[in-house]
Amino acid sequence: ILQSGGLVAFPTETVYGLGADALHAQAAAKIYQAKGRPSDNPLIIHICCFEDIKKIVTHIPQAAVRLADAFWPGPLTMILPKSEAVPYETTGGMDTVAVRMPANRTALALIREGGGYIAAPSANTSGRPSPTLAEHVYEDLKGKVPLILDGGAVGIGIESTIIDLTEEAPLILRPGYISLDMLSGVIGEVHTDPGIAADRQNCRPKAPGMKYRHYAPKAAMFLVEGTRERVAAKINDLTRAAMRKGKKVGIIGTEETAGDYEQGYVVSIGSRQEEEEIAHNLYRILREFDESDVDIIYSECFETPRMGQAISNRMLKAAGHQVIEADESG
Ligand code: AMP
Ligand code: MG
C-alpha cells in the first residue's frame, strides 16, 4: 500500500500515526485529505535507521548526532534543513523537515518495508484527540484508510517532543516525554518557544501546527487551578450549577482526589505520583467523554515534575485555554 502511494495507520510509542510515503508528493497529500488537516501543517518523517537521515537533510549538526545517540529510537522529533528529495507537500511548504525514529517494532518494520521514509501525523481526524488505541483510529478514519495495524495501547500517549536545530540555539517547539532538562543534559543550552505556553491569539508559535486547536474534545473544557481543597470545592460548585441547567458534566480527577467529588461523571486520570500514567490516559479519557455526550468537562491541573510542561500544554489546548482560578476570593 505504501509503495503505491496509499495510507497505512500504525502504532508508535507516542500515539497512532497515519503513514504515507514521505518522498511521494501525492501520497502526502492523501494524509491531509483523510485527516481534514490544513495543508500548511507539516508532517513528521519517520525513519528506521540514523543513516537514512542523510537523504532528506542538507546538513547534520553535531547536536543531532548526539540527540539521536541519546534518544533514538524514541519520542524526539528534530527539525533540520530539508534536501531536494523531500517534496514541499510533506513539509507544508517549509524548507525544513521534521524527522523522528519511533521506538516501536511494528512501526520500524513498516518503515523499512515501505521504502524508509514514512510521513505520519497522528491518525485522528484533525482537531480530535490523538489516538492511543487502534479503535480510536477506526472511529475517526474508517472507510478512509485501507489498513490499520493494531498494536494495542501505545506506551506514552502524547506526541513527541519537537526540537528545532536550524536556529542558532536549539529550540523546543512542542514539549513531550523528553523534557528540556533531558535535552540540555545532552547538548547544553536549549530554549523553549515562548509561543508554546501562550494563548494562540496573542502569540504565533514557530511550529505551524501549534496554532491550531488540537486535541479538542466535543464538550467545553475548563481547567481548574489552585490548592487541592479549593479545586475540589470549586469543581463541586460549578458542577452543581451546570447540572441545575440540565448539563451533563464530566470531571477529571486523580486517584487521590476522585472521592472529593459529589456529583457528575468523575474519572480518575491516574495517580498524582505517576505522571506517565496521566499522559497515557489523557486522550482516551477525552474520547470517552465525547462518547458519553458530556456537555462540560472540569479538570484538575497536573504540575508533574518532568512531563508537566507537555501534559499542561495538551490540556490547555484541549480546553482552548479556559482556566478557572479556584483560589481567587469572590
Ligand atoms: P503531528 O504529526 O500531528 O504530531 O504534528 C506534527 C507537527 O510537527 C506539526 O504540527 C508541526 O507543529 C511540527 N512540524 C513538522 N514539521 C515541521 C517543520 N519543518 N518546522 C516546524 N515544525 C514542524
Ligand atoms: Mg496531531
Architecture blueprint of SSEs:
Layout: E1 8-10, E2 17-21, H1 25-35, E3 44-46, H2 62-71, E4 76-81, H3 88-91, E5 96-100, H4 105-113, E6 118-119, H5 134-141, E7 147-148, E8 161-164, E9 171-174, H6 180-187, E10 191-192, E11 220-225, H7 228-244, E12 249-253, E13 265-268, H8 275-291, E14 296-300, H9 308-318, E15 323-325
Parallel strand pairs: 1-7, 3-5, 4-8, 9-10, 11-14, 11-15, 12-13, 12-14
Antiparallel strand pairs: 1-2, 2-6, 3-6, 4-5, 8-9
| Gyration radius, rounded | 20 Å
Distance between the termini: 60 Å
Helix content range of the residues, please? Answer: 25-40%
The overall average pLDDT, rounded, is 92
> What's the SSE pattern?
EEHEHEHEHEHEEEHEEHEEHEHE
β-strand percent reads 15-25%
Q: Identify the overall geometry.
A: globular
Structural classification: alpha/beta
Main sheet strand line-up: 7-1-2-6-3-5-4-8-9-10
Biggest beta-sheet profile:
10 strands, mixed
The strand count comes to: 15
Poorly predicted tracts of residues:
none
Which ions, cofactors or small ligands are bound in this entry? adenosine monophosphate, magnesium ion
Please give the count of helices.
9
Short descriptors:
330 residues; alpha/beta; ten-stranded mixed sheet; five-stranded parallel sheet; 15 strands; globular; binds adenosine monophosphate; binds magnesium ion
Overall description:
With about 325 residues, the chain is α/β, with parallel strands linked by helices. The protein is about 30% helix and about 20% strand. It contains nine helices and 15 strands. Strands 7-1-2-6-3-5-4-8-9-10 form a ten-stranded mixed beta sheet, sandwiched between helices. A hairpin with a 6-residue loop joins strand 1 (about 10) and strand 2 (about 15-20). The protein is globular, with a radius of gyration of 20 Å. The N and C termini lie far apart (about 60 Å). Magnesium ion binds near residues 121, 122, 130 and 214.
